[in-house]
Amino acid sequence: MPMGKHLPVGAFNSEVTRLLGSAFEDAWQKLTASEAALADKRRAASIRELLAKRIIELGRRGERNHDRLVEHALAQLAGSNATPDVAGRHLN
Hints:
It is globular, with a radius of gyration of 13 Å. The protein has three helices and no strands. The relative contact order is 0.20. The protein has one domain. With 92 residues, it is mainly α. Helix 1 packs across helix 2 and helix 1 crosses helix 3. Helices cover 57% and strands 0% of the residues.
């Protein structure tokens, strides 16, 4: 599922849209490589949607640093109630 589906039309210019998309893909790869419970294939679609929404929100708030987008989105996701068994799992 591409992140673009969650972006409101005209919300960001093309450069920022590419940045957010790249951060989303890198965050997802990091999450799946971590073997965290959040990366479970049965929950992939809903977790990817949450991740996309978090990155978009960070972008709306003005964040334009790729690494901070990735790290903040993953930290927020880990701290959310997305899954109860993520506690104690390291996402890096």
